[in-house]
Protein 1
Amino acid sequence: MRANIDWKSLRKEVLETFTPGPAINEVAQFAGRKATIQRLQDIAAERARHAIIFGERGVGKTSLSNIFHKDLNTATRTVREIAVDADSADSFDSLWRKVFRRIQWSDAEGPLDLQFPGEIEPDHVYLQLARFGQNELPIIILDEYDRIKDDACRVLMTDLIKALTRLANNPTLVLVGVAENIVTLVRDHASISRNLVQVPMHRMTNEEISEVVTSRTRRLRMKISQDAVWRITYFSAGLPFYAHSLGKYSALTAIESQRLEIDENTVLSSIDRCMADVDYTITESYTRATEKIYRKGNIFAQVLAACALTETNDIGQFTASSVEEPLSAIMGKPYEVPAFSFHLNEMSGPERGAVLRKTGARRTFQYHFAEATMQPYIIMKSLKEGIISKEVFDRFKVKRQKALAI
Ligand SMILES: Nc1ncnc2c1ncn2[C@@H]1O[C@H](COP(=O)(O)OP(=O)(O)OP(=O)(O)O)[C@@H](O)[C@H]1O
Ligand SMILES: [Mg+2]
């Protein structure tokens, strides 16, 4: 039977099925997040309610904003989706100009932005949004909102959201950005807290990550062992990019030796290719954080690996003392905080690329990775380089899986 398999076209299918790069655009491709989707649909249905989706980089914010409204179309109402990306040079005028460029009223010639030779102000936006009919459900998505540097833009956006409460029709604004909380994204958020609903996006659960992998392998008519799914789930740490990337390369690796089964070893041997897919800013910061200066040996790579193995609290933070156990295991002898607090400090500063962020006060400092995608990369890299032995890895892997399974 196997002789009949068209390996070449299966390979192509794998590349279409696992998508580590682009955001999801179809409901069928989107795993989990049921409660959050419902929440956003409710916000879209309610008048004068808007949403701000925020969370770590790469958790799936854009994908969610792409799909949550797909099944809101009814016989009497059509969703009008307008999605734009903000950039660091944007002002209120240029951001809304992007939106207006995508609106074309039937009684006008050309896109709406042409009717505004001067600056677009909140009242202009208000009046244009008022023109959508009762049979339409406009959803305006302003993605990459964290990139806006112009403070005046944020102030005007708050003014706009306040003003929109007067509208009789029901346009919904969805702001999307990388942030730990909305304080950095929205000005004077207390004044619009009833109108701008916070939708924090957490990492995906282990079940959701396994769903990403298993549903896709099933679709490809391939098999994946439980151990292999666990490995991918563990490495991914709730970040769907890694689930897609490891899934993709594991499937390709299997296909290259004409197999339809993915086992644990297939996953392990696809790590290299997954690491090569990681954004270069991550690989660069890793190099910077662990660099040898004047070729002198140091333990930065070991300390960083220990940080990546450390159990964190719900929001990804860990303390210096929680690094002691994994670091001692890596080094093969006991290490206590004073022996590596210098390293933690250095890696939280600009000299070593600020891979870690330090918060809190002296003695109760908490650390977390500045970039979410860094932690899985460190584990894979450290395994590859032999900084973490397979035994140490398994010991801490088991511990973390137990903790995650609760
Ligand atoms: N629910 C999901 N099911 C399956 N794959 C997902 C899901 N959410 C996101 N992904 C995948 O994860 C990766 C990151 O998704 P996305 O671009 O939506 O994240 P993001 O939070 O917008 O990232 P960024 O912070 O870089 O803008 C993409 O490869 C996407 O296909
Ligand atoms: Mg995005």
Protein 2
Amino acid sequence: MNKGTIKSEYGQLSDRDFRRLSAFIYETFGIYLPEKKHYLLQNRLLPRLQKLGFTSYSAYADYVLQQGEHGEETFEMINVVSTNKTEFFREKAHFDILQQELLPCFYEQKINIWSAGCSSGEEVYSLTMLLGDEKSAGHISDFIVYGNDISGRILEKAVKAVYPYQEIDSIPEKYRRKYLMRSKNRTNATIRIVPELRGKTKFVRENLVGKRDTMPRDFQFVFCRNTLIYFDKETQYKVVSRLVEHLIPGGFLILGHAESLVNQVPEGIKTIYPTIYQKDM
Ligand SMILES: C[S@@+](CC[C@H](N)C(=O)[O-])C[C@H]1O[C@@H](n2cnc3c(N)ncnc32)[C@H](O)[C@@H]1O
């Protein structure tokens, strides 16, 4: 490994290195970094250079590019590049529509949902809370919620299912009592999702733009929210087409509020609401 010459400063991420890295990130993960993200990339990569002992961005770029798509450092880099912002019951209207209008199409069945680009799991566990109640009410026979992400570190958090106490604000009161365990630590209060719901989830490190595609193909619902925004139009179209393949006929695809597929709805699905699509029967 060439770690560059020892200097007191790390220098700048040159235009050439920005172009090499952003092209690699785009081709491998579909994440589009325009030129205006140059300094953001530089800042976010700095801790990686420091940790590994590189003294120039150029040497770091060589190292990552040599490792390629499946390299350990490639995943470390993507951990710092991707935006993992999420929250419980984010864009709440989708959960209301799911419960009141869409789920009744599949009453009495086992419900399979995929949260594509699930980050630290808040979307997955919000869905399990809703489905847990639907099961208790006798509307559905059982359920499982899959989540995938490219970031291994964020998926570790999802599997642990421990969250800062402040995050519960967006969780409806009726679920808090049933599905959350509170830590006794008063200085660093956390909550944990109950084991009954954790047991109804599966987290997989998988790239939505990669060749490997191990997700089941019998989902009634695929949620892919606030993830497509990082892709360009062409990649969005490819990813949406891929997600639709994993739906059963009549299944629903739910995108984030800012991600409507205006003028690029793939064949085989129709628009139900601006960000909700149904696969043809
Ligand atoms: C902003 S979060 C959205 C989380 C959640 N869906 C929500 O709406 O709150 C976007 C997530 O997509 C993941 N992501 C980005 N590109 C991806 C790809 N090519 N394959 C899988 N996940 C990806 C990121 O790592 C990040 O955790």
